[in-house]
């Protein structure tokens, strides 16, 4: 059989393409989008992550919550505080640490020469557990990927884990908070300092001295470069 010329092949292709387009038109398709080049990937933002969470029902906490508490503060913060989960007041207004523990956290920040606007504040889980019980394993598993993505966007230099629950969960280490605190650890490659939860300090003001020691270590590390 005679070999087809380039031109014959080209004409065949053109003819087939035309037939496909006519068929599509008959099906009601009257516009085609032809990306000639891959768009460059846009870096993820906190807004993207919030949008993806939407009206999150990935775990059972979604049903009982009032407002999802995504996190708040400086999206380029060098210091991120991670608490346990929203309480009653946080669930009402959708902002982290707005109750009494939050006011104590603000005073700790003030002593560090910082304000809420300088740092980023969020929690291990974004929805209030009923009666403020500890978040369950499956609830953490559903929520932690979003915390990780937030941290990947913010790229803080230091994370402070507030309280036993945040510290033990993030470090996957059941050592008591009294022994975890005051020493540097790592969470996904970022320096992490566990310290007592401000709610614990409200009941045990004696712990403030240790928290202040921990925050001095944090300030030293932030000041180091
Ligand atoms: N306690 C927490 O752990 N997180 C909050 O957001 C408020 C109180
Ligand atoms: N128990 C907690 O849950 N958190 C603290 O910070 C201290 C004791």
Layout of SSEs?
Layout: H1 6-26, H2 46-53, H3 61-64, E1 72-73, E2 79-83, H4 88-93, H5 100-111, E3 120-123, H6 137-154, E4 158-162, H7 163-171, H8 177-180, E5 185-187, E6 190-195, H9 198-203, H10 208-223
Parallel strand pairs: 2-3, 2-4, 4-6
Antiparallel strand pairs: 1-3, 5-6
Short structural description:
With 225 residues, the chain is an alpha/beta fold. Helix content is 46%, strand content 11%.
Q: How many domains is the backbone divided into?
A: 1
C-alpha geometry:
elongated
CATH H-tier superfamily: Uracil-DNA glycosylase-like domain
Counting DSSP H or I runs of 4 or more residues, the number of helices is 10
Which value, in Å, is the CA radius of gyration?
A: 26 Å
CATH topology: Uracil-DNA Glycosylase, subunit E
How far the N terminus sits from the C terminus, by CA atoms, comes to: 75 Å
Output the CATH class name: Alpha Beta
H and E order = HHHEEHHEHEHHEEHH
By DSSP, the count of extended strands is 6
Q: Which structural class matches the secondary elements?
A: alpha/beta
Helix fraction by DSSP (H/I, runs of at least 4): 40-55%
